[in-house]
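Q: Please design a sequence for this.
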């Protein structure tokens, strides 16, 4: 390997298919951490080493080791899990974790606060739940998302089936996971040693994310992902095939304009029987063409920008043996969830509940998610879904069980009537666990929304769906650059304000105000709410309005995201 390669490439190469010294590190009692190289490798196993950032300075003063613990991210294709699986996860959170479960923006659960000595026990329980965490993080294909309700229609079922088929094809083959976490037999070095047929020894240059969407709902935010499939339906509602999207991504670094969020391009159309082969080809082209020297330039979005979509498509076609047709027309209307009850084609119903920022916990006098879900899981013969908007669906409910579900939901205040603004808001985890956070997010957004709700209501906008998203740093974990109002952490208590993304998730926003604090955020948004209330035409979404009214220029693609910022000012 050459020195030009990034450090992570050397770590992966020397890791013997993701083993490193993880097994030894777990038994090392002198520290709650693991060595640096293993911190990179453990991500492929679905974990991050973190420390409680609220306690950092106090512990430093006392010359104590940081309060280390691990975050575990489960892999749940399409966000579908059973009542039994829920019981296991809740138990792990209660016994080993911080007593909460966190629904992520990619339809899965994270468990925070698990100390090293409890990791193996937690991982065994996840295995007992017939779940896994392999490749939930790391430079591999991660949790595949799909429209969260396979029972809603045949097309939704087909989307979920495709998500599962892609998951299976792209799963790492290393036996390191079983060996380290589940005390499987060590076979490294023997004739049976697994070689990764798709990834090879160094896996992918960077993380890789796949989603499957069923129009008109873009509730998986397809344009934010490396690879996506859009169901194209015939008149009877059956899937004809899939438009394939490539090169979406959110991450960037403040002040580095050669890093930017990008919406995916629609590359072509394929038949269902070719869709998995296409996914493998996209992944292997990125494996071979992606930048392994600079991790800030290693995502597929930069490969597509550098090589061009045509060259990328040609190579995917050559490797897969599939000729892609021209993309078919499709229409998305929203990235949001449909709250309340919906009816499936088979007569069973589904209840979507709003979970503020995805955090499941019991709040005194408020929503008691863990108690309620425990009761729901016992009363419910269907299953559950997590949405990419951090919400929860009680799915596949038989007609005779609806009233019981409603009773439990009411008993534990799960149906708290959130405002339109709050229902459409989402924040990343950020402090105190995220090591990359520059500002608060999950712990601050609810309070900001309370103030903005007032301002919106004062202008008669209480019922307007306006998408607000916040992240504690520019990495974009809550996809803030696809929000009509995006707030991105710049430093403690300070945020950049972005405006003008499309309600249907197809257009990025633009920087409107930089490095502002709470009062200024409200002061900037209030007159824009007023202008929207008075000047918007019927049916015009907030994100479209701010462009037409001249508050921001339109972002046409990733490369022009940083250009032409700030237009009409209110102060
Ligand atoms: Fe993320 C890193 C949390 C979705 C872009 N993300 C992190 C880490 C692991 C911080 C770290 O590397 O140390 C965060 C852990 C925080 C914590 O304490 O739990 C973290 N990301 C999350 C979650 C939990 C946010 C949430 O509130 O739900 C989401 C978990 C998703 C999942 O279940 O797999 C999450 N992250 C996303 C998304 C949204 C998406 O994929 O739809 C993005 C933007 C899309 C994209 O990938 O471009 C995203 N996360 C990042 C990045 C920037 C990547 C880049 O290309 O620059 C990082 C930093 C990195 O990779 O170096 C990051
Ligand atoms: Fe952490 Fe930044 Fe992701 Fe928020 S956006 S979870 S602060 S990495």
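A: Design:
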């Amino acid at each position: 390997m050459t020195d030009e390669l990034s450090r992570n490439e050397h770590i992966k190469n020397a890791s013997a298919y993701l083993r490193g010294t993880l097994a030894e590190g777990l038994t090392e009692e002198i520290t709650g951490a693991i060595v640096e190289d293993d911190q990179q490798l453990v991500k492929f196993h679905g974990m991050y080493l973190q420390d409680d950032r609220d306690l950092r300075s106090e512990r430093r003063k006392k010359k104590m080791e940081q309060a280390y613990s691990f975050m575990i991210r489960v892999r749940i294709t399409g966000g579908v899990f059973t009542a039994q699986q829920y019981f296991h996860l809740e138990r792990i959170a209660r016994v080993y974790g911080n007593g909460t479960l966190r629904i992520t923006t990619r339809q899965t659960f994270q468990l925070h606060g698990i100390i090293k000595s409890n990791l193996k026990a937690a991982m065994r329980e996840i295995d007992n739940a017939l779940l896994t965490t392999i490749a939930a993080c790391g430079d591999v294909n991660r949790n595949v998302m799909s429209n969260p309700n396979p029972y809603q229609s045949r097309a939704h079922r087909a989307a979920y089936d495709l998500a599962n088929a892609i998951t299976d094809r792209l799963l790492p083959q290393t036996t390191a996971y079983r060996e380290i976490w589940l005390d499987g037999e060590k076979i490294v070095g023997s004739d049976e040693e697994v070689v990764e047929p798709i990834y090879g020894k160094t896996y992918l240059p960077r993380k890789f994310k796949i989603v499957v969407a069923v129009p008109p709902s873009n509730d998986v935010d397809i344009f934010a992902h490396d690879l996506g499939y859009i169901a194209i339906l015939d008149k009877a509602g059956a899937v004809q095939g899939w438009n394939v999207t490539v090169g979406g991504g959110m991450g960037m670094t403040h002040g580095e304009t050669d890093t930017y969020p990008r919406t995916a391009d629609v590359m072509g159309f394929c038949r269902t029987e070719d869709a998995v082969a296409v996914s493998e080809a996209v992944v292997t082209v990125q494996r071979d063409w992606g930048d392994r020297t600079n991790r800030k330039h290693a995502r597929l979005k930069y490969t597509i920008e550098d090589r061009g979509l045509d060259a990328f498509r040609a190579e995917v076609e050559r490797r897969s043996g599939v000729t892609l047709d021209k993309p078919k027309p499709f229409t998305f209307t929203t990235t949001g969830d449909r709250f309340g009850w919906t009816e499936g084609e088979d007569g069973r119903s589904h209840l979507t509940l709003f979970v503020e920022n995805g955090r499941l916990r019991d709040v005194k006098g408020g929503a008691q998610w863990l108690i309620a879900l425990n009761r729901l899981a016992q009363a419910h013969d269907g299953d559950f879904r997590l949405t990419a908007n951090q919400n929860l669906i009680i799915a596949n409910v038989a007609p005779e069980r609806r009233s019981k579900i409603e009773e439990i939901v009411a008993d534990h205040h799960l149906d708290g009537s959130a405002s339109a603004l709050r229902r459409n808001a989402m924040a990343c985890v950020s402090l105190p666990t995220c090591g990359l956070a520059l500002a608060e997010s999950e712990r601050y957004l609810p309070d900001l929304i309370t103030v903005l709700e007032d301002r919106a209501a004062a202008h008669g906008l209480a019922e307007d769906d306006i998408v607000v998203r916040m992240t504690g740093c520019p990495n974009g974990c809550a996809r803030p650059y696809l929000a009509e109002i995006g707030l991105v952490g710049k430093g403690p208590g300070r945020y950049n304000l972005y405006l003008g993304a499309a309600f249907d998730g197809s257009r990025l926003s633009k920087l409107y105000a930089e490095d502002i604090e709470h009062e200024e955020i409200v002061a900037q948004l209030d007159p824009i709410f007023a202008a929207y209330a008075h000047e918007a035409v019927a049916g015009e979404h907030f994100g479209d309005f701010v462009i037409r009214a001249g508050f921001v220029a339109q972002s046409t693609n990733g490369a022009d995201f940083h250009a032409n910022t700030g237009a009409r000012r209110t102060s």
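Q: Thanks. Anything notable?
A: The pocket of iron/sulfur cluster (ligand 2) is lined by residues 428-430, 434, 436-437, 441, 471-473, 475-477 (CB under 6 Å). Residues 272-289 form the longest helix (18 residues).
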